[in-house]
Specification:
The complex is a heterotetramer of chains A (286), B (330), C (316) and D (326). Chain A is built from 13 helices and no strands. By secondary structure, chain A is mostly helical. Chain A has a single domain, classed as MetI-like (MetI-like fold, Orthogonal Bundle), CATH 1.10.3720.10. Chain A is elongated, with a radius of gyration of 22 Å. By secondary structure, chain B is mostly helical. Chain B is globular, with a radius of gyration of 24 Å. In chain C, strands 6-7-8-3-9-10-12-11 form an 8-stranded mixed sheet, sandwiched between helices. A 4-stranded antiparallel sheet of chain C has the order 2-1-4-5, covered by helices on one side. Chain C is globular and about 65 Å long. By secondary structure, chain D is α/β, with parallel strands linked by helices. Chain D folds into 2 domains: 237 residues, P-loop containing nucleotide triphosphate hydrolases (Rossmann fold, 3-Layer(aba) Sandwich), CATH 3.40.50.300; 88 residues, no CATH class. Chain D contains 11 helices and 12 strands. Chain D has an 8-stranded mixed sheet, sandwiched between helices. A 4-stranded antiparallel sheet of chain D has the order 2-1-4-5. In chain D, a hairpin with a 2-residue loop joins strand 9 and strand 10. In chain D, helix 4 crosses helix 6. Classes of the chains: A mainly alpha (286), B mainly alpha (330), C alpha/beta (316), D alpha/beta (326).
């Protein structure tokens, strides 16, 4: 059957996919807020700006103030920064490790595959949070960046598995054999022949890793193992619970951070499904 | 089949071995002196600090060579000796953990199993029509993207504070003593419900999405098309697809346990529910390293055990693993 | 007349528009006839086969009339066709290796399928066993999962299953393409045996391998670019074809005894037209060595001799 | 000249290599310069494995493959690259032979990058166009296109042109026309035959006996990794001596005659006989308690350039004689 040119085809479907449109809109909204948000506030996250203590949202303090009179909106936009940083660094690192392990295991096969797969399976069954917890507990200095690194280092196994399976099937394709007959070396084949075929897939993987890293960071922050300085959405929730916002009914303190995480991660998931439909002709709706 | 289990057991044994080793290694190879850190940060009486210092030097066995420390650690482990808690001094860590474990089982088991069952049913239902799909799937994505603690906080705030119909702290009322009576069991369930609900809802979303995707895939499989070509009613086609779609969901259950554990930890924190999660928070706040390490080991053991049970179930439900042709790469 | 198809048009919906995969087919299959349906990939033979039994998106019914044993088949309606499927019209699919539910024992699956069609499974069982004997399968397969069977065994099992209710028309879709020569022969011979034993009345064998059709088919129909080119008794198609496409196609087939340095065969230059927007007139025109002015009009599929239909202006 | 001497391929099956799978066992044959040799067998006969071993895509478990007297398993790095200058392959699936996200002519660019970086662009383009013309393609029609815009036949010719750009002297053609349509496959086959006049040797791997006959001087019949019969093509086809070859010949659908009502050839399952003839379980003439189950028959030259591995080659001859009388 005939096919229109590949690139136009993707664009055509991408622009018509509602899931993609909704997902990307939400993600971009928060991304813009992250960069533009600090322009709308004159405070720092921990500054005691409202002597009245906890106050509901008002024109002066859009998201209200905490028990200590800190501006929730300020905390929120700076917290968003930490969230996106964790997503990019943690999710990126998780993707990177997973992809490299998966590529090598899938392409080399044999004993290399055997060893890498065993390691993958081991890291896969160890609960991520438990390992993060024990590392974080002993770290003397913790920042958003180190947190991201550790999240990335524990989140890669499922990616490695998936990439391995994909590489495996690509490796048996005959164009890889032909590349070998052209005298290309292994790395060249992996990066010039195998990897480009998986770009769409890797994008999907990264999106999922991004969302996963955000959720993991929120969990760590919430139990007090987050960064020692700065603010994050998870820490906002931790403080809110710690200082009784629940009992006192200070809903404006704990609703925004969780809602933002839910919206961002949810939008990422929906984007992922939308992209999958765009890339995968089988899933396209007629 | 024997090979399949052999391989699985090997992986689990290796995992446990490595996890325990990490557990042992981290306090020793992290920067700084853990004993000093712990004692300086923990608020202790002077004489207690004296006792503790002597105890920890012995416990960490810093006077013997590293390999000796390592072997001693394993010997102690096999004797069930996980050390002594700092913040609940002088209770042994094992004893403290054993007290918490029943609550975890009580909370996690129903949450995991019921969300899995309901999620699967709902996901299969969503795949029935476009209209259902377009309403149920977004709900699933929103639920599965919700941070556990946030849902917990919302539920606690709304049902506990605003409506005031559920308690939001503890496993039972402070005024009660654990005993077997309707009143106590009722109280227990009332405290249990909200943490359970928040765990259940988030997981439910994930399973529903997973099932919906799997069943759509199965409905496009060759055997489904063949059934259709032979005029099988939709009910039978769906029934077959559902049975086959459930298999990867079982595997998914194993892979997902780590996430559920994380969710349980923060949920317990929100509701002050006295399981391991709550214990960990207390241990972190009190710099009780022995307790943290003990909890870590328990979580690993729990997850490995659950995985093994799932493996057994999988072999029972999927004939392909039994005939020995597949199953190596579950 | 067992099957009659009149002006059947089934298109594929794609992004760029409708692909005219089957563009007006009119033919009939007689009682007990094994009709071979051959052509190159993309000629519409599979579309034709599938549209007779399971017409699903992206396939779209445009027009046409299909009658089987005097009753019109509602091929455009997935639900209503269920009455006819299995009992009146059945298929051995190309994917026979994966056609059975991997997690059900074959016997149980068969029983459930029969019961779902309101056929008493118990009453059918003796006949099922007799047919297993016919294809030399042990009765034990009913207690096995599909994965325990070899490829050839699965193929034979599907064959038995598809014909269990003695359909009036059986469609065999590329059943030999994945098999070795020795298994090929066994499978198609079983197909003939099934027909002889009245396990099915008429058969349409879809394949790209004309030499197999020569061995078993009573008649052969050649398709080209979504349309019928020629239909005639087997001997006629092989030894006295009249459509230029059929002639070129048959003469391009290498055979044992033909060597390149003794008798050099040649293919047909060019490619079939794209069916998204096929050219007007005869679709073979561009590749045809004898095309002339009349070929700018679409040639009718006419009977040039008894039971011999050709769509070519040279013959009309 | 390429020669295989006692070549075997054994796979370790199972996680820790518990079982062995003999994909190819003790295969020896030569391909002389300018010859076309057919490697014929059913699926699982090891025919593609042999091709891949020659191309060094998989390792050789035992035996040697000599290319002009050099053991190819010793080739590494530059020497291996030089080997690929002379020995190339074309595979079954034309679409899978191209990276779907790149244009088809990328295969030429790769060749240039790896082997001819010093050749100036315009000269290279001339070479490409020349090679395309040899394989019967119009450069203007096929260059700068994506694989899905070309037909299977065009893509396979493309790969042959790719090999011609190198100094290719030996081509492994692994089922290269089995996925092509009838109307175009014969042209690719003719092209292969024509390359012979350029001094090229071809190993033609196929399951289709009529194709093997059409193109090759010599044929090798394989079953489960073992050579059953080999020699001059006409001799094997006119007078097949091995029961397996006879069965294959009887099963080929032909246009000049119909199948005989023969005994069902599917009978008997493959079994793992440790010693003995690999065809034992399916063989109609095997002595059920005799040597066929104990020893593996050696390949014996029964007439000039006609080898058979069967204890009963004589009986087989009689069977053929009888069937041809009918």
């Amino acid at each position: 059957m005939t096919e229109p040119k590949k690139k136009n085809e993707f664009l055509y479907f991408a622009l018509r996919n509602n899931k993609l449109r909704i997902g990307l809109t939400v993600v971009f909204f928060f991304l813009v807020l992250t960069f533009v948000g600090p322009q709308f506030t004159d405070y720092t996250p921990y500054a005691y700006v409202n002597p009245m203590g906890a106050q509901p949202p008002s024109s002066e303090h859009w998201f209200g103030t905490t028990m200590f009179g800190q501006d929730v909106f300020t905390q929120f936009v700076f917290g968003l920064q930490a969230t996106f940083l964790v997503g990019i660094v943690g999710g990126g690192l998780g993707t990177l490790i997973g992809v490299v392990v998966g590529f090598v295991a899938g392409y080399r096969g044999g004993i290399v595959d055997e060893i890498l797969s065993t390691i993958t399976n081991i890291v896969l069954v160890i609960p991520t949070l438990a390992i993060l917890l024990i590392i974080a507990a002993y770290l003397e200095v913790r920042g958003v960046f180190t947190e991201s690194i550790f999240i990335g280092c524990t989140a890669w196994p499922w990616t490695a598995r998936a990439v391995r399976a994909q590489t495996f099937s690509l490796r048996s394709r005959e164009f890889v054999d032909l590349a070998r007959l052209s005298g290309m070396n292994t790395w060249k084949i992996i990066f010039q022949e195998v990897a480009p075929n998986m770009m769409s897939y890797l994008l999907l993987v990264f999106i999922l890793q991004f969302g996963g890293a955000i959720l993991n960071a929120a969990t760590l922050d919430f139990i007090g193992l987050g960064p020692m300085e700065g603010i994050s959405l998870g820490m906002m929730m931790q403080y809110a619970v710690l200082w009784g916002a629940l009992h006192l009914g200070h809903w404006w303190w704990f609703v925004p951070p969780g809602a933002a995480i839910m919206a961002i991660v949810g939008a990422l998931y929906v984007t992922n499904v939308g992209l999958d439909e765009v890339f995968n002709p089988k899933l396209r709706e007629m | 089949m024997r090979r399949y289990f052999g391989r699985k057991l090997f992986i689990y044994a290796l995992t446990f071995f490595l996890a325990a080793t990490i557990d042992w290694m981290i306090p020793r190879f992290m920067p700084g002196d853990p004993v000093q850190n712990m004692l300086s940060r923990a608020a202790l009486h002077a004489e207690a600090a004296e006792v503790m210092h002597g105890y920890y030097t012995r416990a960490f066995g810093l006077d013997v060579p590293v390999w000796q420390q390592y072997i001693n650690f394993w010997i102690a482990l096999f004797h069930g000796d996980l050390g002594t808690s700092v913040y609940l001094f002088p209770q042994p860590v094992l004893q403290i953990i054993m007290r918490a474990v029943p609550y975890d089982i009580f909370l996690l088991l129903p949450a995991i199993l019921l969300s899995w069952l309901a999620g699967n049913k709902f996901g299969a239902f969503a795949a029935r029509s476009k209209w259902l799909d377009n309403t149920i799937s977004p709900l699933g994505y929103i639920l599965t993207a919700t941070p556990y603690m946030w849902l917990g906080i919302l539920l606690a705030w709304f049902f506990g504070i605003v409506l005031g119909i559920f308690p939001i702290a503890g496993a039972y009322s402070f005024t009660m003593r654990p005993h077997l009576s309707w009143a106590f069991v009722g109280n227990l369930l009332k405290h249990w419900f909200l943490p359970f609900a928040s765990l259940f809802l988030v997981k439910f979303g994930g399973w529903a999405i997973g099932m919906r995707n799997m069943i759509i895939y199965e409905l496009e499989a060759d055997y489904s098309h063949y059934l259709e070509a032979l005029g099988a009613p939709r009910k039978l086609v769906r029934q077959y697809a559902y049975r086959n779609a459930i298999l990867p969901q079982i595997t998914g259950l194993g892979l997902d346990l780590g996430v559920v554990v994380a969710g349980a930890l923060v949920t317990e924190v929100v509701f002050s529910y006295p399981g391991i999660g709550y214990l960990i928070l207390a241990a972190i706040q009190n710099q009780d390293y022995f307790l943290i390490q003990g909890c870590f080991l328990f979580i690993i053991i729990g997850v490995l055990l659950a995985n093994f049970i799932i493996d057994i179930v999988y072999v029972i439900v999927d004939p392909r693993t039994r005939t020995g042709m597949q199953g190596e790469t579950v | 007349m067992s099957l009659q198809v009149e002006n059947l048009k089934v298109y594929y919906q794609t992004l760029g528009g409708d692909v005219k995969a089957l563009d007006g087919a009119t033919f009939s299959v007689a009682d007990g006839e094994i009709m071979g349906l051959a052509g190159e990939s993309g000629c519409g033979k599979t579309t034709l086969g599938h549209s007779l039994i399971r017409l699903t998106p992206p396939m779209r019914f445009i027009e046409g009339r299909v009658t089987l044993d005097g009753k019109e088949l509602p091929v455009w309606d997935m639900e209503e066709m269920n009455v006819f499927r299995f009992k009146k019209i059945s298929i051995i699919p190309q994917y026979a290796m994966n056609a059975m539910n991997p997690t059900r024992k074959i016997g149980k699956m068969t029983a459930e399928l029969l019961e779902s069609r309101r056929v008493n499974a118990q009453a059918t069982w003796p006949e099922l066993k007799r047919r297993l004997d016919l294809v030399e399968l042990s009765h034990d397969v009913l207690n096995m999962y599909p994965i325990e069977l070899s490829g050839g065994m699965k193929q034979r099992m599907v064959m038995v299953l598809s014909t269990l209710l003695d359909p009036s028309l059986l469609i065999a879709d590329e059943i030999t393409s994945a098999l070795d020569v020795s298994s090929q022969k066994a499978v198609v011979e079983m197909l003939v045996e099934f027909r002889n034993q009245r396990c099915c009345n008429s058969v349409i064998v879809i394949t790209h391998d004309i030499s197999i059709l020569y061995q078993i088919a009573d008649s052969i129909m050649i398709m080209y670019a979504g349309q019928l080119a020629e239909k005639a008794p087997t001997e006629t198609i092989i030894h006295a074809p009249r459509h230029p496409y059929t002639q070129l196609l048959i003469s391009s087939l290498p055979e044992i005894g033909v060597k390149h340095d003794e008798k050099r065969l040649s293919g047909i230059p060019g490619r079939p037209p794209l069916l998204l927007d096929p050219p007007a007139g005869c679709r073979f025109r561009e590749r045809c060595p004898v095309a002339f002015d009349a070929c700018l009009e679409p040639p009718p599929f006419t009977e040039v001799a008894s039971d011999h239909f050709v769509a070519c202006w040279k013959e009309a | 000249m390429l020669s295989l001497d006692g070549v075997s391929k054994v796979y370790q099956v199972g996680t820790f290599g518990g079982k062995e799978l003999h994909a190819v066992s003790d295969v020896s044959f030569d391909v002389t310069d300018g010859a076309v040799v057919s490697l014929i067998g059913e699926s699982g006969s090891g025919k593609s494995t042999i091709g891949k071993m020659i191309l060094r895509l998989i390792s050789i478990s035992a035996g040697t493959i000599l290319s002009d007297g050099v053991d190819i398993s010793t080739l590494q790095g530059r020497a291996l690259k030089e080997y690929y200058r002379n020995v190339q392959g074309v595979f079954q699936d034309p679409f899978s032979s191209y990276n779907p996200i790149f244009k088809a002519d990328r295969v030429f660019k790769t060749i240039r990058e790896e082997f001819f970086p010093q050749v100036p662009g315009s000269e290279w383009n001339n070479r490409v166009e020349g090679a395309l013309q040899v394989v019967g393609l119009n450069p203007a029609h096929v260059l700068d296109k994506f694989p899905h815009q070309l037909s299977g036949g065009q893509l396979q010719r493309f790969l042959i042109a790719r090999a011609l750009l190198l100094d290719v002297r030996f081509l492994v053609a692994d089922e290269i026309i089995s996925m092509l349509d009838a109307s175009t496959r014969i042209d690719v086959l003719n092209l292969l035959a024509d390359l012979k006049s350029r001094g090229l040797s071809v190993l033609f791997i196929t399951h289709d006996l009529s194709l093997g006959y059409y193109i090759s001087e010599r044929s090798v019949i394989l079953y489960r990794g073992c050579v059953m019969e080999m020699g001059r093509t006409e001799k094997i086809y006119d007078r097949p001596l091995h029961p397996y070859t006879q069965m294959l010949m009887a099963s080929v659908p032909r246009l000049d005659r119909k199948w005989e009502e023969a005994a069902n050839v599917m009978k008997g399952q493959q079994s793992d006989l440790i010693s003995g003839c690999v065809y034992y379980a399916r063989c109609p003439v095997a002595a059920r308690n005799g040597m066929c189950s104990r020893g593996r028959p050696a390949l014996v030259e029964v007439e000039d350039d006609h080898f058979v591995a069967c204890f009963h080659a004589g009986i087989g001859t009689m069977a053929t004689a009888r069937s041809s009388e009918r």
